[in-house]
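Tutorial sheet, problem 5. The two components below are modelled jointly, 485 residues in total.
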Amino acid sequence: MTRLLPALAALVFALTLWQAVVWLTGVPHFILPGPARVGAALLNNASLLVHQAGFTLANLAMGLTAGIALGVASALNLAMSSAARVLLRPLMVFAQAVPVFALAPIVTLWLGYGAPSKIVMVALVTYFPVTSAFFDGLMRLPPALDDLTRQMQARPWRRLMLLQLPHALPALGSGLRLAAVQAPFAVIIAEWVGASKGLGHLMLISNGRGQTDLMFAALMVLAGLSLCLFSAADRLARHWDRD
Amino acid sequence: MTAPSLHISGDLQLGAQTLCPALDLTCPAGQWTVLLGPSGVGKSTLARLIAGLPCPAHLTGGITASDGLPLDGRVTLMAQTDQLLPWASVLDNITLGARLRGQRPDPARALDLMSRVGLEGFATRRPATLSGGQRQRVALARTLIEDRAVVVMDEPFSALDAATRAAMQVLAATLLHGRTVILITHDPLEAARLAHRAHLMQGDGLHPLPLPATVPPRALSDPATLSAQANLYARLMQVAPA
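Model answer (structure tokens):
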């Protein structure tokens, strides 16, 4: 309750400000619809929005799962094998320097307008922050713990699982937070580049038809999704931070 | 397990700089050898070398055991920080060595050691819920379960309050009985209580220090212990810069 109340107050403030801007400037509703109009569009198109959001959310979830799983596996591999580090690290640094969003047209060209291109874009965008944050965490075992593993003649795999991995969980948490922020961008951009479904697609279509209120409604739903995603990642990361 | 005596010889060097020249130190089997001395003279460095841990310095001579066997796997270091895993229970911390080697941990033995260090009923507790003294008891149990013949202790009790430290000294002396122990400390009283032999380590080499003829652990209330402490202080004050 104590956390909900300020959030609610901030929401009311934002809506009031929005309505005030609409009234004071007198902008036409097809440029900036007021909150009441967007609310009505949300209700009137509820089933359409849920349907489109479902497609976007499913791709988000699959892309995130794939990106995180691959990222975690890559980081563990890099931590275990110095050969992998020598071969792959420069590649990873290079890949991070490429703006992944710029790959969206290519991904769409190769994989088409359906779900696969969206999933791959989300996976690509989440893979790098997860890999690099988790890998850094794995490699930063405190020297005192490193001494302990030497004295106890630890096996490398056991050292990884019993010491490095638990120690790297907070770092993985930061990677997940970053991934949760970037993933919705990735899915929307992929939908803008080419799609026949989804919230991003709906935004483009309604924009083209002058249905600005529906476009804002879709934006609201997307913002809600992103917020839920981030708070889920944040919860997990906080849980790991505490340990 | 019969503990060997150790012989440490040579100059302790860091690059071209000699930290402590001409070491010729014998640590008798099954006894406590205590090294006192000013900071920066290489005591902790020497502790790491004996424990076989990576360190930037090196000995021009070497470290040999009286039984002629290599020391690998027979030495364990107890450091000032307890190095407990914050995410693991007390029991899991104590059995860490076995788990890291991929062996089956022996919880019965761990529980027995826990009761001997006075931690009965603490098996499922997390380190964060323990006091400094209790944490060092866990570290001691973890050291004991490894069952190494040679134990190097680098100021393990220096962060504890006076009463806890005094209790830990007796506990360590009792439980490490029969092992060859090298204890690094800044505390003359700790040396006076625990040492079979004590040495002052300083920039010009090692110097033997006088100790009471009695067998350690020596009682705090024993006047001989206290006068030994006073003597050790006097020697340390000569070394310390004014």
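Marking note: The mean pLDDT of chain B is 90. Full credit if you identified this.
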